[in-house]
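$ fold --in a.seq
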Amino acid sequence: MALQSLLKGKKDSLLKKWFDQTAQSYPSQTTEFLKNNKGQFSNPVGYSLKKGLEGLLDALSGDFNDETLKNVLDSIIRIRAVQDFTPSESVYFVFLIKSIVAQELGTQVEGKELLEFNNKIDRIALIAFDVYMQCREDLFEVRVKEVEKRNFRLLQVANQLFELRGDAALSQCQEDSHTEKETR
């Protein structure tokens, strides 16, 4: 229980460091934008990242519920799943809190509490990977449906052209037949 109290007491400092280190995973210009632009509408990625990390920190210092974690992680992972991150890079931010807590709290947390904390982080990382895979699967399904729609539309156009050509060819045959009869 002491760890939960310490996490709550250092929440702002922990959150700032976790956000800053996670922002470092982006290219340098993006990192600066994420850190310096705090608006929800002018910086939706930074806003979602900060709110998501705050939710994870709240879960670590209070109720630890898998369903809540999935929802919190979804706000971060959904964005990272469509960016140029590998799967491991997409979920790596979860592990950053381990070293941040070690730096901030030092020897105040040891033994069983530290082991339980590290196990919670590992659990969050596994859930994050599941969320990542679901996001990638959803993205893949959207792409497949888009290709199917495009192919269906191309077939419709091809059929329309075939029908027009077929009607024109039939008309031409009928004209040729009529002209041939007249010349006989």
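$ fold --in b.seq
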Amino acid sequence: MQGTVRKNEIAALVKNEIKRLNEKSRFQDTKKYMQHGRVSVYEHCVRVAYTSCYLAAVLKIPVDRTALVRGALLHDYFLYDWHEKGEGHSLHGFFHPRKAWENARQDMPLSDIEKNIILRHMFPLTVVPPQFREAWLVCAADKICAMKETVSKR
């Protein structure tokens, strides 16, 4: 029963944060852009949010769940198609965290944890490691989800 309650709590938190982001940001625009394979940036970010919460629960890591979910949902808030050739996106992996953070801070205030999640989720590709537990969890969840999305057949 406890696992079901936890899943319901996480689902409610993720849905609530998506609703809040839809009201005050361009988060819906992430549906326009593809991330890995046939998975949109929107779908990817939602998956990363759920996976981050799951990892925190399974590993019994105390976290600020709201910051964890918001940071996960915004970690790829770069709002462009990185697959387009000749658009200056050849080093997307290195530079999109800063673009995502710039877009997010234009649209809403961010906590230090949320900022760190967005800016450090590409570690070790970007050399500065995450500072907070929540950022480490999103960093790991992002890699797990990206791998699944890249290699799985749909």
